[in-house]
Write the structure tokens for this entry.
Amino acid sequence: MNSNLIDSIKNLSKINNKNIVDIRHHLHANPELSFQEFETSKYVKIALENIGISKIEHKANTGLVALIEGKNPSVKTIALRADMDALPIKELNNVAYKSKNEGVMHACGHDVHTSCLLGAAQILFSLRNEFEGTIKFIFQPGEEKLPGGASMMINEGVLKNPDANAIIGQHVMPLIPVGKVGFKSGLYMASTDELYVKVIGKGGHGAMPQLNIDPVVIAAQIIISLQQIVSRMSSPIIPSVLSFGKVIANGATNVIPNEVIMEGTFRTLDEKWRLEAHDKMVKMATMIAESMGGKCEFEVRKGYPFLHNDETLTAKAKQHAIEFLGPENVIDLDIWMAAEDFAYYSQIIPACFYRLGTRNEEKGIVSSVHTPTFDIDENALEIGSGLMAYLAIRELAYN
């Protein structure tokens, strides 16, 4: 039975592939930033209607949720998720589908995710008389920006009516060759918090430091000292990252400024330690500034939680991927310290978030996500569409 199902899905994937490539090209050429995906949402809705899907609702303003009901639709519901937003990056690729929106680019593959989910919807609509249960398609806004579109979709009931029993999502991975996918059971991705720090001193002439309270020196001391939170205060078995990527000391060669602005990120995989670290960071930075005669305003904006892949669901999904792609094309992943708002779903229902290989060194497709030259080997679209459809049907078969 599974071999017949695999053959059917692969055949439908191949038949639909040109359409999915065209969809991806349109989305890539017309990217929209987080929570501004108005035209993208309209386009996806029309694509769903063209498939024949009539049960479509708006969520979180620019988000969409659609249903395909098989036989006995109330037996079980599986949700499939794709994100739709782009990044504020100027694209440098010289391709026919290059971004038309200056300074905005699908540099994280969300155009791929949306295209693959539409491809899976095409396949599953064709096979709706071959499975029991309901498949829910979640097209989500704002993954790249707090508070995260996933949290907003959940608050508006995207996992309800009907209640989803599990959720599956996929994400491009340029480190994995096209044709392969990767899975990681249990803890997979980190929580993420944004750090906003203002160090206040007393500016003046750089040649007379004794008359000033130098916020640049204070800020430097804070950055160096805060690294002890990870290296000396955290358990070595808890992955943690503390990084500052933005420091503004708007003085001059001979001008000490009044203040320094810093922005950074803190990530970990343990919720108790996460909260402890927040407190330690604020206290340490404040005390350092005060001991040096200055002040420190330290804001922690709590972001996404850690992402947990349900062990049972992920084990089944990995086995189903092996059935669909062969054991040589399914690999094990390690912990990834990036963050994903798919984590919100994983805190509520069993979730599986896996990686879709998009790399092709022979074609020069090697750039990382969040870079202006990111692109994919589009053979991944056929694989991603077919695999999502297969995972959904196989998971529905388990009661």
Q: What stands out?
A: The chain is about 35% helix and 25% strand.
